[in-house]
UniProtKB/TrEMBL annotation:
Gene source species: Sporosarcina newyorkensis
GO molecular function per UniProt: copper ion binding; oxidoreductase activity
PANTHER family noted in UniProt: BILIRUBIN OXIDASE, CUPREDOXIN SUPERFAMILY PROTEIN
Protein name, per record: Multicopper oxidase with three cupredoxin domains (Includes cell division protein FtsP and spore coat protein CotA)
InterPro entries reported in the protein's UniProt record: Cu-oxidase-like_N, Cu-oxidase_2nd, Cu-oxidase_C, Cu-oxidase_fam, Cu_oxidase_Cu_BS, Cupredoxin
One GO-annotated biological process of the protein: cell division
Family: Belongs to the multicopper oxidase family.
Matches recorded under SUPFAM superfamilies: Cupredoxins
Domain Plastocyanin-like: 92-205, 232-326, 374-497
Keywords recorded for this protein, A-Z: Capsid protein, Cell cycle, Cell division, Metal-binding, Oxidoreductase, Virion
Pfam families assigned: Cu-oxidase (PF00394), Cu-oxidase_2 (PF07731), Cu-oxidase_3 (PF07732)
Length: 498
């Protein structure tokens, strides 16, 4: 596959990507790419100022496949004398992302990213969270249905050296969730520096389905994050930061630079997480082969949906299955994006492994007539760009409750993405503490692969989306755009569940 030169040492080459969030990074220098006729260190000042376009973002460099994909470790559960099952620490560290070069990073229970936590439906989980950073942070359990005082929003900040014990019962179906920080005005930088980890929930149904479930073998977590490194090959958020969403030219998958994934000739389950600050990812195979999606953010679809590509905005997840025993190609096999940038090359061994079948029926998710007939009770208008983003014309105020809702009562929210003078951009919209159902997109049924539980949803400019939403627990919860710089800039509100 042709490998494109995408980023100069200082001047940024911009490529149009349809359907992706807007951005222009600052001209932070990349060590590995130099435009002909330009020396490293020279700056194209015409590209420094201003916002280029809602549809233009920096292209990703191809993965060379040099490094085998790192698999997050599984954090073992061990009860101590206090009944604590897990301890999760936010830490500073140094990580060798480029060979021989250490960069300052953040991580959970390590220097970069975090371990995977596995929960069983019905179990009670007790976690000690510890802040070992030099700044405030929180521990937000993205997608978990928990009480407001456990959720880890900006009200729950831990100061440096502080710790907090939280406890909750897992009362939702099998799914792939994640955890990350959510401090006031600092979420984007802390996630960028490496604070993110995965949560797997399993239940009787997931075990019955006999899907690929050998962690790290045929059940693979994939955290996709784009970053920009300076000329010293360091993560430098302040240099890369863009108020409209920070986007980089270098892809890390599970924190691995230039990754590849070695698989057997079998069905392999990929759990995709868009963990980026702002970039949207469209995933497809370079051979044009199809795959099947089996799960959304919060659980299994009723039946597998065959796709040739899938787009995830920041914080969205999807589980897909690729049957590597049926892909015949003489070319290199890889997961690519809509620009055909190589995201993750695959090396298929000659070894044949399991011959499992993808189940025809996986779940009993449904929209009831009652839910479909409910009137809209809450309307949300997303608007703006850069640091002028708002929800319903307002910026976030931690002392203001925007909505109230009764515990256990289903309501219909309508979310509208109001275009701006440049046409607008996609906003990924996330609601804390619950999973919701998509009723409609501009009055039409959602596509088949969105007919499942969701906690984040992509909303295009001038699009209206209706969702049916119920909260199982009481408390105050955030709702916000998951472009992290937009969140930090106040594109966030609060709902109180009574």
């Amino acid at each position: 596959m042709e490998i494109k030169m995408k980023l100069a040492a200082a001047a940024i080459s911009i490529f149009i990507i349809s359907g992706c969030s807007n951005n222009k990074t600052e001209p932070v220098q990349s060590m590995d790419h130099t435009t002909e006729g330009q020396n490293k260190g020279e700056t194209d000042h015409s590209m420094i100022e201003g916002h280029m376009s809602h549809d233009q973002v920096v292209s990703l460099n191809d993965s060379t496949g040099k490094n085998e994909l790192k698999i997050p470790s599984l954090l073992k559960s061990e009860k101590d004398e206090e009944g604590i099952v897990y301890t999760v620490r936010a830490e500073k560290g140094k990580t060798e992302i480029f060979d021989g070069v250490e960069s300052d990073t953040y991580g959970y229970n390590g220097s970069f990213l975090g371990p995977m936590l596995r929960f069983e439906k019905g179990e009670t989980v007790k976690i000690k969270t510890v802040n070992e950073l030099d700044e405030e942070t929180t521990f937000h359990w993205h997608g978990l249905e928990v009480a407001g005082d456990v959720d880890g929003g900006p009200h729950d900040a831990l100061k440096p050296g502080e710790e907090k014990i939280i406890e909750f019962k897992v009362d939702q179906e099998a799914s792939t969730l994640w955890f990350h920080p959510h401090p006031m005005g600092k979420t984007a930088e802390q996630v960028y520096n490496g604070l993110a980890g995965l949560i797997y929930i399993s239940d009787n149904n997931s075990e019955r389905l006999e899907l690929p479930d050998e962690y790290g073998e045929n059940d693979i977590p994939l955290i996709f994050q784009d970053r920009t490194f300076d000329e010293q090959k360091q993560l430098n958020y302040n240099a890369a930061k863009n108020e409209d969403g920070t986007i980089g030219d270098t892809l890390l998958v599970n924190g691995t630079l230039n990754p590849k994934l070695t698989v057997n000739k079998e069905k392999v389950r990929l759990r995709l997480l868009n963990g980026s600050n702002a970039r949207n990812f469209t995933f497809k195979l370079n051979t044009g082969n199809s795959f099947v999606q089996i799960a959304t953010d919060g659980g299994f679809l009723n039946e597998p949906v065959t796709l040739n590509e899938i787009t995830l905005t920041p914080s969205e997840r999807a589980e897909i299955i690729i049957d590597f025993s049926k892909i015949q190609t003489d070319d290199d096999l890889a997961l690519i994006n809509e620009e055909e940038s190589v995201l993750l090359p695959f090396e298929v061994s000659n070894k044949s492994a399991s011959t499992s079948k993808t189940p025809v029926e996986m779940n009993d998710f449904s929209l009831t007539e009652e839910e479909q007939d409910l009137p809209v009770t809450k309307t949300i208008e997303l608007f703006g760009m850069m640091d002028m983003v708002t929800i319903n014309g307002k910026k976030f105020d931690p002392k203001r409750i925007d909505f109230t809702q009764q515990q256990g009562v289903t309501e219909v929210w309508e979310i509208y993405n109001k275009p701006d003078m440049m046409g607008g951009m996609i906003h990924p919209f996330h609601i804390h503490g619950t999973q919701f159902k998509i009723l409609s997109r501009d009055g039409a049924e959602p596509p088949e692969n969105e007919r499942g539980w969701k906690d984040s949803i992509s909303i295009k400019p001038d699009e209206r989306v209706k969702i049916a939403i119920q909260f199982k627990h009481k408390g105050v919860y955030m709702f916000h755009c998951h472009i992290l710089e937009h969140e930090d800039n106040g594109m966030m509100g609060q709902v109180k569940i009574e």
